Automatic annotation (TrEMBL), chain A:
SUPFAM superfamilies according to UniProt: MetI-like (SSF161098)
Record keywords: Cell membrane, Membrane, Transmembrane, Transmembrane helix, Transport
Organism: Glycomyces niveus
One Pfam family linked to the record: BPD_transp_1
CDD domains referenced in this protein's UniProt entry, alphabetically: TM_PBP2
Stated family: Belongs to the binding-protein-dependent transport system permease family.
Protein name: ABC transporter permease
Bilayer disposition of the protein: Multi-pass membrane protein
Keyword presence, Secreted: no
PANTHER family noted in UniProt: D,D-DIPEPTIDE TRANSPORT SYSTEM PERMEASE PROTEIN DDPC-RELATED (PTHR43386:SF1), OLIGOPEPTIDE TRANSPORT SYSTEM PERMEASE PROTEIN APPC (PTHR43386)
TrEMBL record, chain B:
Record-given protein name: ATP-binding cassette domain-containing protein
Pfam family, one: oligo_HPY
A molecular function (GO) term: ATP binding
The keyword Transport is annotated on this UniProt entry: yes
């Protein structure tokens, strides 16, 4: 910075824009430069749309089961065949091995299944209250088999299942992290701001939770759930369990920040302005590192998603009929099944993709969070 | 002097910081930051408070505005003892006693724009909102020499001098009577310093403010203050009218402070010897008996090292009557 810049006030339009830019804008400008993070952010935005409209996006209902086609391979969408132009897939011909009883499927170009956008299908309620029967993509005749990502061992459409699982797994991650952050921020802030015995108590609790290995702790807590509990109740309890274990790291970080900020003169000055403790903590101090919190938030969602996946895969988390990526991957855990049906690993790919996307977005946000470093 | 009304009367004020506590939370080792200060501020005056770093002047200022709890003693403001008030009652007195901070960088929240910073005292207590809030902020900004156009800008776009104007605006927006200015210009360039001092002087005349001006810079204090209190080791060691103090300091510590003021005129260089104090400050967790300055004082006698020495006739020194100490005003007046 030159002496002139240090002395005077910015008057050129670009500089004026910068002086008026709030923290949020400065972070956004910096974030936009991070290509990978931007692409990931779009991917996650798309995922949120899928979560919100999942009944519409999925060709079939999550209870749809077609016992005639178990472990059927993925079909290919075609635009052109001998019988003319039009979006369609080929039907299956099946053959059962008389000795192993194993059914193998072949694509049958003779059996044309017309596919269309916004087709009539199973009825559902969008957002839980708008009755609809249209699906984004589906067979023109609702009874026809259209399994773009193949089917599961139970004869369920894998694509539809993955769409429904995305809603469950991603929302466990997001809701769980929000819960954990609420706890972490409030307890961390109180601990760092007031200090003394409150600080001592909170820190000891954190140490206690941190000293217990997390997988056995999840397992123990999840095992204590009644077996006959419904899928919705189970979902919320599992989310809460994950959150109760995850808040500690953030609480420590927030406490450290509050300890450091407490001696800043602007905090003293806020106190002298007559602000209440709550206002000082959450209006004056927390915004100083809110961008770091958002970055930490998106960086900890993957951990939560992986935790749910692991827990469900082990059979201690969500259970069928609930579908989550972890529940789906249970199917793929037997080599004998997997060797014949590699498409059952698609939910695993989704986990990798979403976890990477959250990590890139988190990285981008973290780098952008400090606009003054350049 | 006699027609002056006392605004704030400080009586035997002690502030101690616990260094170590025992199991029951009782302090076992304490630092005495302010130990027995008696001081009266009169309406409309500027009282300069000088002393070296660590002498307790900032702690005294922070105790007056309520940022620091007093260990014992009283702060009587308009007849009411501030130390006895609850947190809620203190709220009202906080609007009458305000503070301007030393560091123009750490005292402004980097995440808030000027509207939020200057308006904060009004918003926090719900005193003003909407258009009225806006008007009062704009009015205050104009008074301190900032264009209201800058309202939406963030502190990172301002220089030190302008930030200090923001600090002053925030202090004055609630209409205080007493302003504790803790080294308000020591972090500023010399060129900007005079502007801020002039602004403080103008605002004092305009709003009838009383200042407690804390500084280690004797020339700034001489310029602004009506009376000066010299602090050493948590105590006021000398209190006098500014002119008298600079011409005839009556405490050896004041003389030593004055000898450290650089003289801009090279022809006078060397005329006045710099008094170099031997030794360090005493240990503030274990204060010596008698005069705290005795160990470093060239004039000290045995009687200085025993008993409590009161502030008598404006100086806390048993030998103040017999010594002829050197100030700095005569050096300036002897210029050709």
């Amino acid at each position: 910075m030159t002496l002139k810049e240090a002395e005077g006030i910015a008057e050129r339009p670009a500089e004026v824009a910068r002086t008026r830019a709030s923290q949020r804008k400065l972070v956004w400008w910096a974030f936009k430069k991070h290509r990978l993070a931007l692409v990931s952010a779009w991917l996650l935005a798309g995922m949120l749309v899928v979560i919100a409209l999942c009944e519409f996006v999925a060709p079939f209902d999550d209870r749809h089961r077609d016992s005639a086609y178990t472990t059927a391979p993925p079909q290919v969408l075609k635009l052109w065949s001998d019988s003319g132009f039009g979006l369609h897939v080929d039907g299956y011909t099946s053959e059962q091995d008389p000795r192993s009883l194993r059914i193998t499927y072949e694509a049958n170009p003779e059996d044309r299944i017309d596919v269309g956008f916004f087709v009539k299908g199973e009825e559902y309620e969008l957002f839980g209250f708008i009755p609809m029967d249209r699906h984004l993509l589906g067979p023109q005749d609702p009874g026809d088999p259209m399994y773009l990502w193949g089917t599961t061992t139970d004869g369920q459409d894998l694509l539809s299942q993955v769409v429904y699982a995305t809603r469950v797994s991603a929302s466990v991650g997001i809701i769980g992290v929000l819960l954990a952050f609420l706890l972490g921020i409030v307890l961390g802030a109180v601990s760092g701001y007031f200090g003394g015995w409150i600080d001592n108590a909170v820190q000891r609790v954190i140490e206690l939770i941190m000293s217990v290995p997390s997988i056995p702790l999840w397992l123990g807590l999840a095992a204590a759930l009644p077996a006959q509990m419904g899928p919705v109740g189970r979902y919320f309890i599992i989310t809460t369990i994950l959150a109760l274990v995850a808040w500690t790291g953030l609480a420590r970080e927030v406490r450290g920040r509050f300890l450091a900020l407490r001696s800043e003169e602007f905090v003293t000055s806020a106190m002298l302005d007559g602000s209440s403790h709550t206002r000082i903590m959450f209006r004056h101090m927390l915004p100083s590192f809110s961008s770091h919190i958002i970055a930490a938030l998106s960086l900890s969602i993957p951990g939560m998603i992986l935790a749910e996946t692991a827990l469900s895969w082990l059979g201690m988390g969500l259970r069928p009929p609930a579908v989550s990526w972890g529940v789906q991957l249970q199917d793929a855990s037997k080599w004998s099944v997997l060797s014949g049906a590699p498409w059952l690993l698609i939910p695993g790919l989704c986990v990798v993709l979403v976890v990477l996307a959250f990590n890139f977005v988190g990285d981008g946000l973290r780098d952008a969070a400090d606009p003054y470093k350049h | 002097m006699s027609d002056k009304q006392p605004l704030l009367e400080i009586e035997d004020l002690h502030v101690r910081f616990p260094l170590r506590r025992n199991l029951l939370g009782r302090p076992t080792v304490e630092v005495h930051a302010v130990s027995g200060v008696d001081l009266t501020l009169y309406k409309g005056e500027t009282l300069g408070l000088v002393g070296e770093s660590g002498c307790g002047k900032t702690t005294l200022g922070r105790t007056i505005v309520g940022a620091q709890k007093a260990t014992s003693g009283s702060l009587r403001y308009d007849g009411r003892d501030l130390t006895a008030l609850s947190r809620r009652e203190q709220g009202a007195s906080r609007r009458r006693i305000r503070m301007v901070f030393q560091d123009p960088f750490s005292s402004l929240n980097p995440r808030m724009n000027l509207r939020q910073i200057i308006g904060d005292p009004l918003v926090a207590t719900g005193e003003a909102r909407g258009a009225e809030l806006e008007d009062r902020i704009a009015e205050m900004m104009r008074r301190v020499g900032l264009s209201p156009d800058y309202m939406d800008r963030y502190p990172h776009s301002f220089s030190g001098g302008q930030r200090q104007r923001v600090n002053i605006a925030r202090a004055l927006i609630v209409g205080p009577e007493l302003v504790v200015a803790d080294e308000p210009v020591s972090a500023l360039d010399v060129s900007v310093r005079a502007q801020i001092l002039n602004l403080l002087r103008e605002l004092q005349a305009e709003f009838g403010l009383t200042y407690l001006f804390i500084s280690h810079d004797l020339s700034v204090v001489e310029n602004l203050a009506d009376r000066v209190a010299v602090m050493y080791f948590g105590r006021v060691v000398e209190l006098a009218e500014t002119g008298a103090l600079y011409e005839h300091p009556r405490h050896p510590y004041t003389e030593a402070l004055m000898s450290a003021v650089p003289i801009p005129d090279p022809s006078l260089k060397g005329r006045q010897g710099r008094i170099l104090l031997p030794d360090e400050l005493p240990d503030p967790s274990d204060p010596p008996p008698g005069c705290a300055f005795a160990r470093r004082c060239a004039y000290a006698e045995d009687r200085c090292r025993t008993g409590e020495i009161p502030l008598a006739d404006g100086a806390r020194c048993v030998r103040s009557g017999e010594l002829d100490l050197e100030g700095i005003v005569e050096a300036e007046s002897s210029r050709p």
